[in-house]
Amino acid sequence: MSSKVLQFGPKAHAFIMQPPEKDRKYTILVGSVRSSKTWACTAKLIVHLCRYNVDGRRMIFGKNKGSIYKNILIDLFEIVGKENYSYNQQSGELWLFGKQFFCMGAQDEGAAASILGMTIGIAVCDEIVKYPRSFVMQLFLRMSPTGSRLYATTNPDNPYHYLKTEVIDNPKFAPDLTVLEFTLDDNPNIDEDEKRRIKASQVGVFYLRFILGRWVAAEGAIYRDCWPKVDLYEADKIIPSIYGWGGYVDHLVFCDVGTANPQVYLEAIDDGRGLWIDREYYWDSNKEMRQKTGREYADDLQAWLSPEGYRDSNGILSMSRVMRRNQPRIVVDPAAADFRLELTSRGFWVIEANNDVLDGIRRVSSVMSRGLLHVNNECEHLIREAPGYIWDEKALKVGDEQPVKMADHSLDALRYGCMEVYSDYRLIAA
Fold it and tell me: Residue 239 pLDDT more than 80?
């Protein structure tokens, strides 16, 4: 077994060392990011759950198998050593100290059907707030064996979320439920400088949830707390050296694909710290009264990225911009499979965007609030959309958090880009 085990805070240590026999049926660890919730569940899995005798299947759930591997299994495997586990990534079957577990995604409504008929004795649930209600309620039904145990981690969400209203605050669950609240101070492995950076990476409602651990509603304008910190620059004020070879670390185009809606391209330069949105392509088929085909949009992109495409509004060719014209990465709306195929056939380097809306909004908010986003004043649609981007109040009241789908196409493209460029670690380190 690996000796690379970090220390535990008192709250995590007490949770880990308490035998499952003494735990209630359901235990939810809720609180801020980096507060050791997942780490504590991983340790509990190693210390107790591999040898806890209970009927039924042993399950590890997450948004998908990829998130389970990233959040739990990488650390788990390093600690226990290769001789103590085997894992089939395709099937999700995990053998740990001779006990069989199954890893399964639970991010959409179809997930509930995947556990129908199962008898589950142990369930470890990573990021449970992101599971659909139908899955979680079905999971409770499946945990029928005597002594069955569920351990879940989550950050707080909307106070109308079903996990808060129907489980945590429901008196019928109280005899079988323990809720452990964690903060950054419960993780002894984070020093004060790191805490400061983590706190600075969140803003507004996300600071209240992910740092203070509060169940609060997102209301009003989505980027109201961070948009004023965005650097809007004149076309001729961008750092000249950023265009040359070695002046940037990445060149990208973020695409939101429209049929009846506008088609948007945002050209971005990543200087290694900040992101410069330097040009914008925007075709509104309703306004123009003509819908283009995917092939025509691909033609437009090719022309837009050609040397001639870099002429300014006065028709002057910007040679400094042409100099940086390597083959950019094209980050494309994940729903636009045909358009991605069209671009790939033309030799473009195409990446399918991550379309997790709430994580994407949080990522964009963090980039804005840290002063990492620079937008050319000529990107008029992106600049106009941001202040009017608002939460859907009707959806919030039924626990569903989503923006109003109106005049948001440039912002969708920006969201895809920030999810591609900025990991949580990069934001904290910036």
Answer: no
Q: Does the pLDDT at position 72 exceed 60?
A: yes
Cross-strand bridge partners of residue 221: 390
Q: Is residue 209 part of a domain?
A: no
Query: What residues make up the domain containing 277?
Result: 227-429
| Separation CA 239–CA 237 (nearest Å) | 6
How many residues in the chain? 430
Q: What is the number of structural domains in the chain?
A: 2
What SS3 state is found at 258? coil
Q: What band does 306 get if pLDDT is binned at 50, 70 and 90?
A: confident
Q: Which two tokens stand for residue 23?
A: 């735990």
Whether residue 79 lies inside any domain: the answer is: yes
Q: Which CATH number goes with the domain that contains 306?
A: 3.30.420.280
Round to whole Å and give the CA distance between 342 and 333: 13
Integer Rg of the chain from CA: 24
C-alpha to C-alpha distance for 103 and 88, rounded to whole angstroms: 10
Judge if 18 and 156 occupy the same domain: yes
Question: Could you report the per-residue pLDDT of 377-403, keeping only the tens digit for each?
Answer: 999 999 999 988 999 988 888 888 889
